[in-house]
Amino acid sequence: MPELLDVIGRTPAIRLRNLTLDGEAQLIAKLENTNPAGSLKDRPAWHIVEYAERAGLLRPGGTIIESSSGNFSIALAMIGASRGYRVIAVVDPKLTPTNRGLLEAFGSEIVVVDEPDDSGSYHKTRIAYANRLHREIRNSFRPDQCFNPLNSRAHYRTTARELLAQTRRLTAVVCTVSTGGQLGGIAKAVKERAPHVAVIGVDVWGSTVFGGEPHPYLVPGVGLSWTPSNLSDLSLVDRVYKVTDEDAFRACRTLVRSEGLFAGVSTGAALTVALAEAMRARPGRQVAFLAADRGERYLATAFNDDWLKAHGLTTATAPEGLRARARELVPHSTRPAAECANHRPGLAAELGCPSIVLARSEWR
Ligand SMILES: Cc1ncc(COP(=O)(O)O)c(C=O)c1O
User: Fold this and answer.
1) Rounded distance, CA 44 to CA 53, Å?
2) What is the CATH T-level fold of the domain 42-144, as seen in this structure?
3) Is pLDDT at 356 greater than 90 in this prediction?
4) Confidence class of residue 355 from pLDDT cuts 50, 70 and 90?
5) Looking at ligand 1, which atom is closest to the CA of residue 177?
6) How far is the CA of 214 from the centre of ligand 1 (A)?
7) 8 Å CB contact between 245 and 307
8) Would you say domain 4-35+151-336 falls under CATH 3.40.50.1100?
9) Is 309 among the residues known to form the active site?
10) Alpha carbon distance 280, 138 (integer Å)
């Protein structure tokens, strides 16, 4: 009989029935929200903790410290509860009551960092604070999803290989980006094993993963103020898109109403782009995206009409609205390696991150 952590991964991939028309490609959703803690982050969280246990970086009774207000902390909180580790989540004031409730349910401790960084977000100050705690607390471990290459290795070894085995006529795979774990890992595996498949990145306007001007945005889970090191090789990415808050919120609402698939806001961002690609691809081909987390996490926001109206977002859920937007959407860049790189090579050291470097042979 498997234990809880043994059932992470091997998620189903399903075909959507209603959002595309005859003559367009099929949309395929890989259901990462069926993982036990409810998101795509269960895979890298467990991959990194398993590695740390084997390497002696995390010993029995130890403490896991991570900077994350969302799914990665929740995944670590589940793992900590199952394996007997204390978990400290370093979060920012944008932590939603739902995520706070989930972290507390798993028994995780929460530390709020309320000093914004130079981009107006909290990513850098949170990471620096988590690193400081790690230096102060004995027998502690920093998974460091942002700079640890094991994040993308988890998706390289599992998510991408599963998806390629589950599809026969895949023409494109669409991934949103924050730490670059999913896009970096999936791009590497796809270009090694099925180079004809287009790899497509999605960021949100206001985030500068692919360069541009920073400004506040509402989509949770997507975006960063630099190109993450887990996405070091942008030449593996064929094209990138930027979507608006309205796109992402509208699409996750349309998805649950039109298909019955209840997923979060980043899934809406990916779906908007996947639909744009499917409308232009050859009939019978498949365009895949990840259903990254569970819709329940957004009952107070994306699935609450009052919240949407208060933030100036549409409450529309008709498929025609999503299709009209997808039809007009064009890539932000078709040459991201040449046009979009916004890497910050010295940043990990500047923020005091522990460094894990993988040899080429360790990717297999
Ligand atoms: C719901 C959701 N979607 C997408 C992402 C982005 O994935 P990645 O960090 O692998 O780039 C995250 C990351 O936290 C997330 O929580």
Assistant:
1) 14
2) Rossmann fold (3.40.50)
3) no
4) confident
5) 11
6) 19
7) no
8) yes
9) no
10) 55
Question: What's the CA gap between 180 and 200, in Å, rounded?
Answer: 12
Q: How many CB atoms lie within 10 A of CB 36?
A: 16
- Domain ranges for the chain: 4-35+151-336, 42-144
User: For residue 136, what pLDDT is reported?
Assistant: 97
Can you tell me which atom of ligand 1 is nearest the CA of 155? Answer: 10
Query: Residue 321, Cβ neighbours under 10 Å: how many?
Result: 16
| CA dist., res. 264 & res. 248, Å (int) | 9
Q: pLDDT of 274-316, one tens digit each?
A: 999 999 999 999 999 999 999 999 999 999 999 999 999 999 9
> How many angstroms separate the CA atoms of 57 and 68, rounded?
20
Place of tokens 């940043």: 347
- Separation of alpha carbons 82 and 326, rounded Å: 42
Alpha-carbon torsion angle 206, 154, 171, 7, nearest 10: -110
Residue ID of nearest Cα to ligand 1 atom 15: 221
